[in-house]
Amino acid sequence: MDHFLYRNGVLHAEDVPVAEIAVAVGTPFYVYSTATLLRHFTLFDDALDGMDHLVCYAMKAASNQAILKTLAQAGAGMDVVSGGEYARAKAAGVPGDKIVFSGVGKTAEEIRTALTGGIRQFNVESEPEMEVLNRVAGEVGVVAPITIRVNPDVDAKTHAKISTGKSENKFGIPIARAREVYAMAGAMDHIEVIGIDVHIGSQLTDLTPFELAYQKVAELTVQLREDGHDIRRLDLGGGLGIPYARSNEAPPLPTDYGAMVKRTVGHLGCEVEIEPGRLIAGNAGLMVSEVIYVKSGEGRDFLILDGAMNDLIRPAMYEAHHDIVPVVEPAPGTEQAPYDIVGPVCESGDTFAKQRMMPPLVAGDLVAFRSAGAYGAVMSSEYNTRPLIPEVLVNGDQYAVIRARPTFDEMINRDTIPEWL
């Protein structure tokens, strides 16, 4: 469910007409719904009720500080994967003891920053990383709390580019070597083993791979405790998918996921962390774009938009589907026709949809890309010297620009011309 609905024939973001925002900020732009963000966070939080738990928002999905602050005030922790994300979380007022640091390539400087600024735990991905962490923690004069990410070799049955739990993926250590690596960690002076981490992929629409992975984690917990490790926290990752196409069957609900977590690891007495990103932010955002031209081609027609692949790269990168709807609701029974929906970037890959059935549209009409709140704005670029597009947050009948569109002068003036030129 989201809070983007037609009212009197016009698409609204909560209580604000989308067209009103378009007039104020120009197109294209992203718009997020506070009510949807909070609803999705609360669904996860409630699903784990009765367990000691923390929902850590995976902020790589959408990291604007206004979004982070909204979720932090509701009680969310943050899952970060870079020093920049750590700095963003801190700037949004998230305390260090609610920030989890994940990622396969943490640098010594990033580790130092988190150790001095405060951290809940590091999710360690390799022996070399653990050695660097132990050394830097010693230099800082602290003991670093860690979980070790295990790779359970479970096929998440998702897109190859977002699968993370198979043996050929770069993430974590093989679960078969876990006891050996935990023994290494236990012998280090500036490392404190507190738990286990697992994450098998993104956009999962079936609970079975989760259950298989969590069962392996439960077995490993027992083994590691037998080895003398105080395993008291399980970081179960994120990955639960969202329905990008409204015609598709909906993925499992957070309540079903929570019941499965309790069934597989609830008996262990561990604190549980989960790291949803897409499910919290995905359906909480739209990208709104204007039709520039309607072009007739050889055997097909094109809707050419002012939004492009640099603004929303998911279709080009992942062959991802987004429902695309007109901002003005078509009358019942309006006949539709197939269009290729494309942007103006000089790449054939700048295509959002092929032969998508749409009602008649003309230049100047607005369309909205649904489920664009996750991995939209954060993956955008200035390719073709196109400005990063504004982000807008709606709260009831209010809205605010939370990232402004830069001017061409601001973009160009970031370049530095060498003195010999």
Structure, explained:
- It is a single chain.
- With 421 residues, the protein is an alpha/beta fold.
- Helices cover 28% and strands 25% of the residues.
- It folds into two domains: 4-31 and 282-412, Lyase, Ornithine Decarboxylase, Chain A, domain 1 (Beta Barrel), CATH 2.40.37.10; 103-274, TIM Barrel.
- It has helices spanning 18-25, 34-47, 65-73, 83-91, 108-117, 127-140, 178-186, 208-226, 254-265, 278-281, 314-318, 408-412; strands at residues 4-7, 10-13, 16-17, 29-33, 53-58, 77-80, 99-101, 121-124, 144-151, 173-174, 191-197, 233-235, 271-274, 285-296, 301-305, 324-326, 337-342, 351-358, 366-369, 391-395, 398-403.
- Strand 1 and strand 2 (10-13) form a beta hairpin.
- Helix 2 packs parallel to helix 9.
- The relative contact order is 0.16.
At the fold tier of CATH, the topology name of the largest domain is: TIM Barrel
Task: Quote the beta fraction.
Answer: 15-25%
Low-confidence stretches: 158-167
CATH architecture of the largest domain: Alpha-Beta Barrel
Q: What is the CATH class of the largest domain? A: Alpha Beta
Q: What's the number of structural domains?
A: 2
Largest β sheet strand count, sense and barrel closure: 9 strands, mixed
Distance between the termini: 56 Å
Question: Class by helix and strand content?
Answer: alpha/beta
Helix tally equals 12
Please tally the β strands and state the result: 21
Question: Globular, elongated, flat, extended or rod-shaped: what is the shape?
Answer: globular
Indicate the mean pLDDT. Answer: 94
CATH superfamily of the largest domain: Alanine racemase
Give the % helix: 25-40%
